[in-house]
């Protein structure tokens, strides 16, 4: 080490060490790390494995994960004399042989101090408060401003995930929980979720939650998450007003449910007055359940690609709408059941170029299932036709049939 580096290393304000990557041997420790052990009359650990109190931990493996962007800091329980210290270890590779590590202690994170630093301003001036979640022990620490947002005392803020989720509106909970679970399962860096949360007066307010992985274990598993929530109730009120006037689905660009109902009703009236055939198709984009385990962004891409693939196949007079997360409704005016089957079969036989596009987006024509219902045999109203088509697609999915006709 050069003299300036050596001086800076030994006078770092946090405990730090230099270790040999392959062997895990700690070849140097600064004054703060030495003092940590001397103050309790204990000998300093000599290897990475003994430092983190884990014989199975490989420093070389962790450095590889660090270089691949899979980890930023490692959470560990340091054995210091007769006590254990919960700490985070950040690593920086010095060269091919050595790594610099420095230790930060977050066991007693003071949110009242954190909220008075530039951290709060850097996040956003509208941020309501900061929280930290220790995943393994399922312990949540909240700032005072979260207590203010929830209209309760700091002691009554949620202290674990179950208590937090008990405050989330039942209609928003599945999506929120899935987003967080996917973040942990796929060892992601960031996530964002919007939902309604119950305040102390039992009223709900819309919030945006943003979380970031703070520390990870030796296998890149998420150990701690830090983040904040902000009140977005006024923004949601505006969005709701705009949504009520909207026509198109944001993800796919297709008609939404409300707009589709207007068009469907008009076409049904024409078919009734002119005695022309009309067929409705319910399309399940995930009949084989291939999308269920995908991360949210990947799943949305697959849904978008599948929907656009079908849209390009339909005729100008046909009406296609997205009516649920992975469900579409297709209305085929002046179309008999026989002609509808021919059109639907074209969806299930993509050409080579279409196949490549689907596969690139993790979508597949083999994941589609279609249920058909005709007017007036299977229903005389839009609601009756939709119910018949839905029953047909459910039976087709159960029996593994790509196209199923209402009985």
From TrEMBL:
PROSITE patterns registered for this protein in UniProt: GGDEF (PS50887), PAC (PS50113), PAS (PS50112)
GGDEF domain ranges (all copies): 276-407
Keywords attached to this entry: Nucleotidyltransferase, Transferase
EC number from the UniProt entry: 2.7.7.65
Pfam families, sorted: GGDEF, PAS_3
Keyword Ligase: no
Protein name per Swiss-Prot or TrEMBL: Putative diguanylate cyclase YedQ
Organism: Marinomonas aquimarina
Taxon lineage: Bacteria, Pseudomonadati, Pseudomonadota, Gammaproteobacteria, Oceanospirillales
Gene: yedQ_5
């Amino acid at each position: 080490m050069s003299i300036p580096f050596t001086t800076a290393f030994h006078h770092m304000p946090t405990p730090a060490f230099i270790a040999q990557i392959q062997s895990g041997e700690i070849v140097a420790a600064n004054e703060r790390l030495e003092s940590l052990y001397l103050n309790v009359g204990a000998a300093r650990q000599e290897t990475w494995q003994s430092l983190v109190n884990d014989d199975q931990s490989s420093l070389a493996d962790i450095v590889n994960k660090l270089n691949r962007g899979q980890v930023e800091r490692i959470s560990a329980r340091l054995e210091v004399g007769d006590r254990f210290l919960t700490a985070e270890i950040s690593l920086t590779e010095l060269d091919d042989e050595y790594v610099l590590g420095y230790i930060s202690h977050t066991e007693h994170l003071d949110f009242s101090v954190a909220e008075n630093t530039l951290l709060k301003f850097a996040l956003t001036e509208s941020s309501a408060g900061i929280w930290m979640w220790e995943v393994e022990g399922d312990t949540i620490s909240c700032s005072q401003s979260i207590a203010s947002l929830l209209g309760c005392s700091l002691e009554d803020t949620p202290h674990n995930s179950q208590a937090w989720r008990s405050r989330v509106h039942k209609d928003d909970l599945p999506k929120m929980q899935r987003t967080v679970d996917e973040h942990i399962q796929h060892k992601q860096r960031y996530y964002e979720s919007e939902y309604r949360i119950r305040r102390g007066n039992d009223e709900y307010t819309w919030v945006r939650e943003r979380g970031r992985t703070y520390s990870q274990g030796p296998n890149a598993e998420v150990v701690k998450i830090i983040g904040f929530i902000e009140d977005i109730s006024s923004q949601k009120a505006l969005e709701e007003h705009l949504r009520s006037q909207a026509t198109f689905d944001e993800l796919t660009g297709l008609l939404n449910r409300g707009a589709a109902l207007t068009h469907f009703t008009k076409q049904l009236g024409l078919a009734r007055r002119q005695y022309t055939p009309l067929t409705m198709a319910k399309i399940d984009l995930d009949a084989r359940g291939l999308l269920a385990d995908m991360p949210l962004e990947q799943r949305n891409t697959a849904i978008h690609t599948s929907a656009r693939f079908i849209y390009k196949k339909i005729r100008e007079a046909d009406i296609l709408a997205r009516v649920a997360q992975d469900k579409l409704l297709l209305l085929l005016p002046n179309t008999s059941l026989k002609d509808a089957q021919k059109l639907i079969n074209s969806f299930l036989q993509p050409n080579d170029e279409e196949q490549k596009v689907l596969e690139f987006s993790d979508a597949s024509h083999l994941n589609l299932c279609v249920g058909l219902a005709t007017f007036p045999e299977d229903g005389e109203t839009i609601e009756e036709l939709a119910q018949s088509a839905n029953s047909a697609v459910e039976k087709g999915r159960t029996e593994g049939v790509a196209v199923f006709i209402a009985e």
